[in-house]
Each structure stands twice: as structure tokens, then as C-alpha cells.
User: Fold this.
Amino acid sequence: MQISLRWLKELVNLETISLETLITKLTLGGFEVEEVLEVEVGNETTIALDISSTANRSDSLSIQGLSLEIAALLNHNPIELPYSTKTYPWFQEFESLNSNDPIQTNCSGFISLIIENLTSFQSPKWLQQKLISSGFSVENNLTDFQNYILIETGYPLEFYDFDKITSKVPTSQIQLSLKGLDEPFEFVARNGNQYLLEESVLVVKANNLPISIAGIISSNETSYSKDTKSLLVEASIFNAAQIRQQSRILGLRTDRSARYEKSIKNTTLLEALYRFISLLRIENPKLICKLHTIAKPIKDPVRRIKLNYEKVKQVLGPIQTTKTIDDQYISPKLITEALTRLQFQVTYDTQNVTWDISIPSFRNDDIVREIDVIEEIGRLYGFNNFLTRLPKIKTLGNEDWDYRTRKKLTSCLINLGLTELIQYSLVNQESFFKNEIELINPLVKEYSKLRSSLLPNLLKAVEENFKKGNSVLEGFEYGHIFLIDSSSDIREKEVVAGIFGGFPTKSNWSANISQLGWFEAKGRMEQLFKKLNIGTYWKSYQPIREKNIFHFYCTAEIFLSNGTKLGIFGQVSPILAKKLNISTNIYLFELEFDPIKYQIQQNKLAVYQDYSSYPKIIKDLSFIIKDTISFSKIKEVLYLNGSQFLKEINLLDEYRGQSIPSHHTSLCLQLIFQSDFETLQNENVETILANLTSILTKEFHATIRV
Assistant:
């Protein structure tokens, strides 16, 4: 907002304040001075400040509001001009109003009046100079007055040609109302564009004639022109959220709606109207003003906050003037003065050193808690006047189990070659899952749902990397997903998901380059659980909810040893892989975080075993077996019959080719034998191995390969 320094001096005494001091005070007070401008006004050069304030300070969006703020920052009394206290005797009209007024139910303030005998719209020269210094162009018509009231008081007034309204309404009794339409309506706005208004859009009506989209723009049919002789003036305060929603629906944002979106308050609306009338009367001395419609304003409840001196000392700390060993703090007297300067009503309890504070209605949006009041005290006293100290930490905080689990799990996943990814938690309309939770008021239509899985975003990340020539992306992500259960309740849970594979690699230096197979991918997952010291078992699973993502025959559910479902693992669907133009040898997993945390929490005590001082004997066993027999069943049988010396079984290779019969697979296992008490003889191990081959042949009809 561009403000003329000369105009500010009319409202605040700045004679003894240099420009640099004023800018410093504003900056420390939370108002950023973007630029100091030199504006040519007539034959003179005047200084203007481009000032931006925070979004929750709608009271500072006018020259009057900003002057009160500057007066508080400088500890000066604001200059009260005569016109700011004069109003027509309309306040008595409020008492006779009906509480169920249709206008009152949709906005916090609504006043309309009729102005007749208009002969000139010419704006005074001094008004034009103030507009130029504030960055507005001069049009020498009603727009000048509209812009002036906006910059001076912060209220956006709307004007209509009253004669045009009466010519289009059959009855002579004009009644204004604020309501939605009964059916869709083609509305031609003052800017010349046409908008289709749905039933949810609020409009201001003169009887049944829509004359404006509430709080946004007036109708082209009833807008004023240079030939207007009678004017209908609307001064209203609309709900900020409602105006924002309507602007987004229509794709239309105006200077007027931009003010309402910042939640302006109904504090001096009548005074702003009187100011407009007095300005218009300068060139129209025979002006006739009639009050047409007035709705009883909705008053915000008075917010009371109790402030404790000890809390102020704790938050703000000692002041800069501390020269002794004992710290000195801001005095209660200065605190009372600061609150009074902000126009807060304050009652000070000297015995308990507390303040009972009544917050003015124009600060209801940003002063909500005790800490907000303390911030205001620091802002007025100057945060730079307090000592900056690091807090004295007596004890270090403890890592909770969530953090410890995430740290351990992250370390294990990174050791497996995966990279941590972070992606957006909202998804677009094209989703892999049904019944996803839609947001009521999304920021953009492209991201209007809460994700019910992390896997789609991981696949899209791989797709984008493939498009850009990066064929290697193996990563994992933590995140929250949202699901609807059978009782239509929304459940939120944290999961960790990952994706790997999809590019050719070597399992050892002598092997040929090949794609990652199912058993190798499963082995990487088992390696993860082994690092986490978590016992699991796997079950074949044919995906239903996840059928668009996982391979129908290459998917498994993972369970903890106590039967708790841990998650799902599988190969990407070939149909989806072709659609995304990515490799079909990509594997995905999604694991629930809480069961992992609980299991790690149970494994508090690390169990160690003595390392055997006797050497291992390693044997390889290759055989052809039906592919319907699970690897877990084979391991179970081998461990049962491998005696106490069989310590470990590893899958070295799984092969299917022309030399292997149909519906069969060739497995190569590494068997590790070791004794804790003696050196094993090769003859003993060969005897055990012969027994195992015999069992495989009889039990599973396996064919031993030499």
C-alpha cells in the first residue's frame, strides 16, 4: 500500500521524526517498507512509502488505521480531525431493526442510501493530489471518491444508478436483499464480461433484479455513468471466506473483493459514509441524502485476555539496560502504557501483577491468546531493546520411539541402496484407488484428494526420471495415508513405502548382466528385516484394492511372527508399466510404521551368541523343482533334516530357460555347515548332503543337477 508522507503528517505528528527513524520503527513494528518513492504532484515532489503489512492486520489497510499504528509505535497522540467524528443521526435507526433481517444473516454490516440532485462528479484538486501520491490515477469522476474513501478509511463502497434500477423494477417500492439465486443466471458485470451465476453465489438484489455480485462487482445494467443524477450507495461488510470462495468459483477478483478477503471490520462504516457525502457535497451543495436500507450490525463478542507479568518476563527476557548481575525487565508501568497506546482497555491488578485486557473488535483476528498480547508489548517496546540469549538447557531431551525407529529404519534402507524421497501429500483426480477422501475446499483442482497410498507417487517419480534419461531410481518415503473404513470413518496411519529394480545389474563379478528377479528382490526385503531384527513370514496374495499397481501373480503379504500384518510387497503390474513406459522388473513395498516400531520396541535387549572358532564348510546344491513349491517350504524341510551343523541356507540363483521343463524352475542353494565344538570332516558333510538330496527327490520329486 502506497502512503503519502504528507498525508500521514495530517494525522500523526511527525515533525520531530526523521524518515530513517520512521522506517526503522515501522520495520521493527512488523510493517515492511518496500520502497521510498518520490512522486511528482503538480509542480512539487512529495515522498511516499510503499508499506506492506501482515495478512491478519486488516485494520492497517487504510491511512487512518496506519496512522493509529504509527502513533502507537512512536508513543504520539493521533490527530483527530473534525470530519472523523461527525455522522448523521442514523445510530438510532439500529434500535428499531428486526433481528431476522435477511441482509443481517449474510453479512456483518449493510447500509445503503440514495443521493439525489447530483450535478457534478468533479473531484477537488487536493483530493486528486492525495490520490496521485497514493499511486491512484485521477479520472475526475465518482471513481476518484471511491478510491479516496478506500485509501482513507479502508471501506470499499459500491455505487449504482438509482434511476436505472427504478426503470427496471416494476414497483415503486425498492427493497434491497442479499441472497442466492433461485436458478442459474447470466450476469453481465460492469467490466463487460459475462458470468454464469450458480445458486450458491450471493447477489445483491433490488426486489428481484440482481444489481451486483455481493462484495465483488456491480451489474453493467445498473452501474453509474457521467449522466447519473441519482445514486444508490452501498456500504457493506461481507464474510471474508465467502467472498474468497465466490471469487474462486467465478475466476474474478477485484479491488473490492481483495479488501473483503482480508476480513475488514465494521467499526467506522457510518463515519466512512458521512465522509463520502461531505466530499460529494463540495461540488453539489444542493445534494439530498436519504437513508434507504440499514441492517443491524453484528457485533463481535468482546474478547478478554488475562496477562501475567511472569509470563511476559519469561517470553521477552531482560532488557538491554541491564548493567548489574541481576537481570532487569520491562516494568509493569511500561506494559500498561503500551497496551493503552494500542487502544486496549486495561485493568491492572497490582497485588497479583496481572492485567485484565479487553481487545477492541478491529484486532479480534490477530489478538487471540496471551502470547499475542506479549508480542504486541515487545513490538511497541522494540524487540531490539531486549537481550538476546541462548536458553539454559538443564537436561537433554530423550529420543522417542518414533524417532528412534525412523532413524534405524532409514539407516537400513539407505544401506540397501535406496534414497529417501519426499513428495506432495495430495493427489489429483486421476487416482489408482477408489473412494479416496476429497477435500471440501482444495487450493487447486489438480490436487483435491488425500492420498490413500504412497505407491502411486513413487511410480510417477520413476516415470519422470525415465523420461529425463535417468533409468536408476531406487527410493523410499515416509508419509501418512488416509482411508475410509467400513463404518465410513476416516482413519489416518503412517507407512513407509519403497521402490527398487528396473535396470540390469550383476549379482557378482563373474555373472552376466540381468534384470532383478523375484527371489533376489524378496531377498533384499528379507535382508532389511534381518537388519531390523524382525521375524517375518510371507503369504501369497492376489491384490484386489491394489490390482492396478501390483502384478496379479507376483505379490505377497508380509506378516510379523505374531500374525500382525506388516505390509505388502510385489512386482509392478505389466499393464501399468507399459502405460508409464517403465521397466516391468520394478518391485514395490508399503509397510505400516506402527507394527515395525512396536516390534523394535519389544526387541530392547540385544542377544549375542559366541562366534565359532571352527571353520565353515560351504556346499552348493542345484536341483530342478516344480515352481508351485514355495521356497519357504524347501528351507523348512532342509533345516529339519540338515542336522545341527546346517547353520544357513542362501539362494544363489534361480533360472528358467529352454533347458528347464515347463512349470519348473532351477534353484541353486548355498548350504553352510559349521560346528561349535569340533572341526567338521568333509565326509560327514557329504553324508548329510546326500541325505538332503534324497529327501528333495522323494519329498518334492526334485531332479538333482550335477
Notes: The chain has a mean pLDDT of 87. The chain is about 30% helix and 25% strand.
